Amino acid sequence: MTDINKLITENINVWTNASFKRNSTGRGSSKKINLIGIKKLRELILDLAVRGKLVSQNDNHEPASIALEKIAKEKEQLKHDSKIKHKKSLTSHRNSETPFELPKGWEWVKFGDICEIERGGSPRPIKSFITTDEDGLNWIKIGDTDIGGKYITGTAEKIIKEGLNKTRVVYPGDFLLTNSMSFGRPYITKIQGCIHDGWLRISPPSLLDKDYLYSLLSSPFIVKAFKKSASGAVVMNLNADKVRDVIVAVPPIEEQHSIATKVNELMGVCDQLEQQTEAELDAHKLLVEVLLSTLTSSKNAQEFEQNWLRLAEHFDLLFITENSIEQLKQTILQLAVMGKLVPQDSNDEPAAKLLERVTAEKALLIKNKVITKEKSLPDLTNEEKSFDLPKGWALARVGNLVSKLGSGSTPRGGKSAYVDSGVPFLRSQNIWNYGIKTEDIAYIPEDTHNNMSKTKVFPNDVLLNITGASLGRATIFPAELKEANVSQHVTIIRLIEKEMSEFILLGIHSPMIQRLVWDRQVGVAIEGLSKKVLELFEFPIPPIAEQQRIIEKVKELMVLCEKAKIGIEQANKTKVQLANTIVDKALN
Q1: 503 burial type by CB count under 10 A (0-12 exposed, 13-18 middle, 19+ buried)
Q2: Smallest Cα–Cα separation from 140: which of 185, 98, 95, 170?
Q3: φ/ψ (deg, to 5) at 356
Q4: Which of 5, 217, 225, 365 would bridge 370 by S-S if both were Cys, CB 3.0 to 4.6 A apart?
Q5: Given this model, what pLDDT does residue 571 score?
């Protein structure tokens, strides 16, 4: 028997430190860290439980074979009394390949030989059966469960009694198994109700401990068996016959009780470890936020440099998670657009002069009919000045900086216009903060490209996603692509002064401008950024020489961040590999 207590305590750092950052879209999710070490510990506990390695065996316990004989007699009596239906006979479990050797007193058995397993049913159309009457039948859906929960205690909806012959009744103590969504997840119902065809009802015999059965159905062993049974289908789906045919390990009834008690005890330990680890991660995140705030609150670049040097002394202790590195990156970008990242130089031509040249150049383009004159934008108000600009800086509306600001469009015929080769047609999935993602580029014919002249993009154009989960992602169209068109989900920002492109892109990536992007969406059915909204964006503009210094400093610091991030990712992979090694060793 594996000494699980020793296994937990001697490897506590492995379980609590092995983690990965969750993938997320949009503005993020509430839980961004996947505590994979603790997840693997939970799986290990369940795996040991169903293999007979969690608690010691007792030769005085009545073997499982006796209980199985009693269960068989009980089922025959229920069939005789017409309380359960006769099912097609299952092949003997002895003809199946057993996954591992069982302890003395345990038995392999087909799941359908000990439990009644039936699929639910749905009266259709379901809307005509839904009722608000108190005497309606509980209508149990996946939405009535809690993620990670064990019991079903209530339902949001009820159905009329006339729907009963189209569905299946379940009773308190029955197990419900998801057979499609949340594939193979077990629950125990504490209520009577009806289930649709997304559920399987499992009615266990009295001589099977329900908590042990719950551990069995939650174990990696059974999950793998279910996935193997459902493999080959387009959508993972469990039917009752497949579940009946899975072989399961049954311990003596007394040992089932002991296993269930031990599992509950150890899952409580896992809960404590999880809470403690999350609390430590939250505390670390708060500490990093507080310390980084000393950078953003720096009065000028000189004070920033002093604060940064103090922070850098403890870099390896502070920036130990992917989240903390991301926080640092965002702080760097915020400092960049506030003029606190590099010192100002009094010899630089002030931004006001730069903006005068931009205004004059735009007027000339309008005069020469290169671009169309548009309605003048309102002057900036004091309320729109969110911080004191450094000396030499100016605040400008984006619409006054551009020769073109507008989204692309869909080629006539939509996707049917795409060809195997031709001119790249860039969609929102191609626009990423680090550049153009070329793996999924669509192409349109040359004549279609020419007919969509207003959606053509050129090198140094800033491309910004304006709808959907990728809202706010932006990049610069690279010279190597030469020509392309963009879809209606991407806006082209073509600056009068091309040298400003990199700083404008940096600014869009900053928390300051991202707040504008997300907070100023318009639309009802589909929210997004319109041209009218975008052109009003207020943007801090440094002298052109300082813009270049800021860009270089940001690149230098981002390289430092990326190196730290790669180190963290590699360390996390090592920790997860170590957790896997400990699990494999414990099971073998």
Answers
A1: buried
A2: 170
A3: -65, -40
A4: 365
A5: 87
Question: Are 425 and 411 contacting, i.e. CB atoms less than 8 angstroms apart?
Answer: yes
Measured CA to CA, the distance from residue 399 to residue 538 in angstroms comes to: 9
Name, in order, each residue with C-beta under 8 angstroms of 254's C-beta and a sequence gap of 6 or more: 58, 61, 62
Determine if the pTM surpasses 0.70.
Answer: yes
The fraction of the chain above a pLDDT of 90, given in percent, is 59
Measured distance CA(75)–CA(117) in Å, rounded: 13
Phi-psi region of 369 (alpha: psi -120 to 50; beta: other; left: phi over 0): left
Start-to-end CA span in the chain (Å): 11
Question: Rounded distance, CA 18 to CA 268, Å?
Answer: 19
Q: How many C-alpha atoms does 433 have within 13 Å on its Cβ side? A: 11
Query: CB neighbours (10 Å) of residue 69?
Result: 11
Mean pLDDT calculated for residue range 176-194: 87
Q: Which of 541, 530, 509, 532 is nearest to 385 (CA)?
A: 541
Which H helix or E strand runs over 84?
A: none
Q: Say how far apart CA 513 and CA 510 lie, in whole Å.
A: 6
pLDDT at 90 over 70: no
Q: What is the pLDDT of residue 323?
A: 87
Distances (CA, A) of 555 to 125, 191, 291, 332, 560: 59, 60, 22, 10, 9
Q: Tell me the mean pLDDT in the region 102-130.
A: 91
Residue 28 has pLDDT above 60, yes or no: no
Q: Residues near 447 by Cβ (< 8 Å), separated by ≥ 6?
A: none
C-alpha distances in Å from residue 243, one per residue of 54, 204, 249, 396 = 25, 13, 14, 66
Whether the predicted pLDDT of 457 surpasses 50? yes
- Cβ burial of 152 (10 Å; 0-12, 13-18, 19+) is buried
Long-range contacts of 291-295 (CB under 8 A, 24+ apart): 291/318, 292/327, 292/328, 292/331, 295/331, 295/335, 295/340
HSE, side-chain direction, 13 A CA sphere, residue 481: 25
d(CA 352, CA 358): 10
The answer on pLDDT for 27 being more than 50 is no
Write phi, then psi, for 51 (nearest 5 degrees). Answer: -105, 0
Using alpha carbons, select from 395, 391, 444 the residue that is nearest to residue 416: 444
**Average pLDDT value for residue range 469-487:** 93
Q: Is the model's pLDDT at 370 over the cut of 70? A: yes
Question: Nearest to residue 285, comparing CAs of 253, 238, 315, 325?
Answer: 325
- H-state helical runs in 51-93: 64-80
pLDDT above 70: residue 365: yes
Cβ 102 vs Cβ 52: under 8 Å: yes
